[in-house]
């Protein structure tokens, strides 16, 4: 880290990056073996304020918070090893990485995934957030907040819909069976239905494919 960070920002970044081995252990328990042979990070010296899930070496613009490091590290499984088939499937990348971030925070004594879900779902129905369907956000909204947070909320709702054990099975099979490949939203639905024995068509239509705030599913 060569950038002239404040002492507080440098301490935050160093503390966050020091947690990477623990994060890897946590995500291994969720998704299966780490998919690559090394890991690390690059802290850039620009002022763009971004993070990018570069394979094995995520890039951070200056300060790297713990939640951001967890998000980008989760992308090694969901995004880099298992990649979207088309850009409209980007919600699979960002939804899983955001939900991984929520689960990591809960494991550390932070807000629970349920609390994070409730925060998202408390967004008023008239808010533009709900106008973007994650399953087809369009070029202008590929990285809109809904692609991250609504998708993560959808995964949490799915967890409640299918039950804890099937959901955990889904996470692991999704990554291990698709490692090194490309996937679509339809692939996830098919696997979720296989694992749970449920018809999830209406659920997916409500949470992923349709603009508007889900009120029942």
Q: Indicate the CATH class of the largest domain.
A: Mainly Alpha
Per CATH, what is the topology of the largest domain? Neutral Protease, domain 2
- Helix/strand-derived class? mainly alpha
Sheet having the most strands: 3 strands, mixed
Reported CATH architecture of the largest domain: Orthogonal Bundle
* Cα Rg: 17 Å
Strand content: 5-15%
N→C terminal distance: 47 Å
In CATH, the homologous superfamily of the largest domain goes by the name: Neutral Protease Domain 2
SSE string, helices as H and strands as E: HHEEEHEHHHHEHH
Helix count from the secondary structure assignment: 9
- The number of domains: 2
Low-confidence stretches: none
Instruction: Label the overall shape.
Output: globular
- Average pLDDT works out at 94
Find the count of extended strands (DSSP E, 2+ residues). Answer: 5
Q: What spatial order of strands do you see in the largest sheet?
A: 1-3-2
EC number: 3.4.11.2
Cofactor: Zn(2+)
Enzyme class: hydrolase
InterPro entries: Peptidase_M1, Peptidase_M1_aminopeptidases, Peptidase_M1_dom, Peptidase_M4/M1_CTD_sf
């Amino acid at each position: 880290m060569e950038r002239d960070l404040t002492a507080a920002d440098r301490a935050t970044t160093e503390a966050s990056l020091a947690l990477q081995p623990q994060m890897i252990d946590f995500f291994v328990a969720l998704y299966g073996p780490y998919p690559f042979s090394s890991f690390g990070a690059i802290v850039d010296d620009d002022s763009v304020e971004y993070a990018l899930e570069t394979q094995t070496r995520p890039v951070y613009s200056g300060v790297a918070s713990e939640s951001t490091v967890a998000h980008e590290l989760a992308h090694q499984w969901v995004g880099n090893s298992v990649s979207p088939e088309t850009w409209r499937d980007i919600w699979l990348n960002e939804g899983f990485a955001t939900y991984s971030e929520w689960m990591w925070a809960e494991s550390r004594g932070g807000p629970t995934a349920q609390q994070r879900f409730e925060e998202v779902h408390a967004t008023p129905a008239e808010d533009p957030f709900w106008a973007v369907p994650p399953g087809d956000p369009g070029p202008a909204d590929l990285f809109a907040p809904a692609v991250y947070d609504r998708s993560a909320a959808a995964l949490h709702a799915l967890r409640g819909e299918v039950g804890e054990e099937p959901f955990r099975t889904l996470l692991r099979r999704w990554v291990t069976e698709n490692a090194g490949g490309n996937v679509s939203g339809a692939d996830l639905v098919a696997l979720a239905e296989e694992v749970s024995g449920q018809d999830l068509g209406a659920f997916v239509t409500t949470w992923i494919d349709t603009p508007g705030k889900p009120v029942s599913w």
